[in-house]
Amino acid sequence: MSAPTDTSPDLSHIAARDKAEILAQALPYIRKYHGKTLVIKYGGNAMTDPALQADFAEDVVLLKLVGMNPIVVHGGGPQIDEALNRLGKKGTFIQGMRVTDEETMEVVEWVLGGEVQQDIVGLINAAGGKAVGLTGRDGGLIRARKMKLLDRDDPNKEHDIGQVGEIESIDPSVVKALQDDAFIPVISPIGFGTHNESYNINADLVASKLAEVLKAEKLVMLTNIRGVLDKAGDLLTDLTAKRIDELFADGTISGGMLPKIAGALDAAKSGVNAVHIVDGRVPHVLLLEILTDQAYGTMIRSH
Ligand SMILES: Nc1ncnc2c1ncn2[C@@H]1O[C@H](COP(=O)(O)OP(=O)(O)O)[C@@H](O)[C@H]1O
Ligand SMILES: CC(=O)N[C@@H](CCC(=O)OP(=O)(O)O)C(=O)O
């Protein structure tokens, strides 16, 4: 019998080798982060595309299955805006914080604690995980008080932004109990006050504080931009506290990036080893950021 002729070369092994190399690259990271807590801020702007949402959910489940403890804190700014628009109301922001009157607070609770949270929980569960949705009320997780927002240019001036909260304290016991039991907590940024009143809290601030209190190894914030950009639109891959002060002062950082950077820096200063702001528009950016050698977006350092 003659030897079989091989007319077309089989190139599939090349693609397979690339894939295998990427998988092998993950090994030291899986070892490094095994048993460690990773806080993931899933921004409202990063969650507008269904395919990307499904990728995100798969990534979270994979991280959990290889032994890490992912905790998701979600935002939902654009989703709240949409709901307000349907009521004929327009969202307004001061220094990245939504002005929250009573009616807006109702919408915030209903959108964040309902639709947005349950969508994420559903997607994670569909990807094979066991997600549980919480608001700051559940298990007494987030105590808050009314935020005092001082004007950035005139610190003698204070803005009244209604039911916006700043975090007074976090009791992480419910999160710890869930993560120890193989669940993935998905947290809405709503806090409660001494009279049981609700507060709308910026999700970046919740994610940062939670990372600090849980002594997380890593905080990854997914947003809808490559990372922090300078005035020329170039990506700043590394930021220290000193450089951040300069960028605040010269107005390079504005809007929703203000609380994000402030929170990220607080987390870095209080011992979270790695704090990253990454582009949630990149498919599987969470896995790429955590499990490969490649650096993505902006890393925030305390010094
Ligand atoms: N220097 C900057 N670099 C990058 N983004 C910036 C900067 N200053 C302001 N921004 C704005 O911050 C936005 C991200 O914050 P935000 O809209 O609150 O997103 P998220 O929903 O992810 O929290 C960007 O889309 C951009 O418009
Ligand atoms: C006080 C305040 O601004 N709260 C935010 C909470 C949601 C959030 O932070 O969503 P993103 O992460 O998508 O921006 C808001 O009402 O929009």
UniProtKB/TrEMBL annotation:
Subcellular location: Cytoplasm
Top-level taxon: Bacteria
Leader peptide range in chain numbering: none
InterPro entries: AceGlu_kinase-like_sf, AcgluKinase_fam, ArgB, Asp/Glu/Uridylate_kinase, Glu/AcGlu_kinase, NAGK-C
Top EC group: transferase
GO CC field: cytoplasm
GO function terms (MF aspect): acetylglutamate kinase activity; ATP binding
Site positions (Transition state stabilizer): K41, K260
Binding site for substrate: G76, G77, R98, N200
Catalysed reactions, semicolon-separated: N-acetyl-L-glutamate + ATP = N-acetyl-L-glutamyl 5-phosphate + ADP
BP-aspect Gene Ontology terms: L-arginine biosynthetic process via ornithine
E.C. code: 2.7.2.8
SUPFAM superfamilies: Carbamate kinase-like (SSF53633)
Pathway info: Amino-acid biosynthesis; L-arginine biosynthesis; N(2)-acetyl-L-ornithine from L-glutamate: step 2/4
Entry keyword set: Amino-acid biosynthesis, Arginine biosynthesis, ATP-binding, Cytoplasm, Kinase, Nucleotide-binding, Transferase
Major localization listed first in the record, in broad terms: cytoplasm
UniProt-listed PANTHER family: N-ACETYLGLUTAMATE SYNTHASE, N-ACETYLGLUTAMATE SYNTHASE, MITOCHONDRIAL
HAMAP family: ArgB
NCBIfam families assigned to the protein according to its UniProt record, in alphabetical order: argB (TIGR00761)
Family membership noted in the UniProt record: Belongs to the acetylglutamate kinase family. ArgB subfamily.
Name of the molecule in the record: Acetylglutamate kinase
Gene behind this protein: argB
